[in-house]
Amino acid sequence: MQRAKIRLHVDHPLGQGQVIALTDKQSHYLFGVMREGEGSAVALFNGRDGEWTSTVTRAHKKAGELTCVEQAAPQLDPPDLWLLFAPIKKERTDFIVEKATELGCARILPVQTEFTNAGRIKQDRAQAHAMEAAEQCLGTYVPEVTEMQSLMQLLRGWDDTRRILFCDESLVGPAQTLAQLTPGPWAILIGPEGGFSPVERDMLRSLDYVTPVSLGPRILRADTAVCAAITLWQSALGDWG
Q: Would the pTM count as exceeding 0.90?
């Protein structure tokens, strides 16, 4: 069976013959927006069972049903990499969540730093963007986007077996290699548009599980730094090898 072009994330278990009831929003999208009908092929994934090709067995704008036919792709989980970032302007925060999903982060944690401009983040909106990014890029995993919390509070309860790659803008200069670092649970920390405060920088540098790193000879915008740092980590320690 040809791989379906329309993809949906669902919360149900997936397997041959499994019947999936669509939400009102999914039914509206599939039958009202995309104009699909009974017999149409739809790709489904739930973050656990890979991607399954299904067919529409009931087409109703508020109560559609799909039936799983066969697995189209196995489950592909990301490496154990978290992203810690200070939210910025709404559209650019959306961009960060989308690209972190596409590039293979397992968890996304917005943090409040001293110079963070965004006072809050809509967790449900950010989670929806992660889901949409996975749907569009053929992913089978949707990272959790957590509620925003202060950086200091987060680090007080941090498990030090998870190393933190601290992207420190004060180290701007020659790009650094991560070849000397060991694989395992990691997190990448990206600061706000105004950078980290001296207090935050000193505190981070005092922690044994934190590794400061330069992202090269140019100061990067926060959203660009996210993409650069994930790429650097994935190339050296992730699943791009």
A: yes
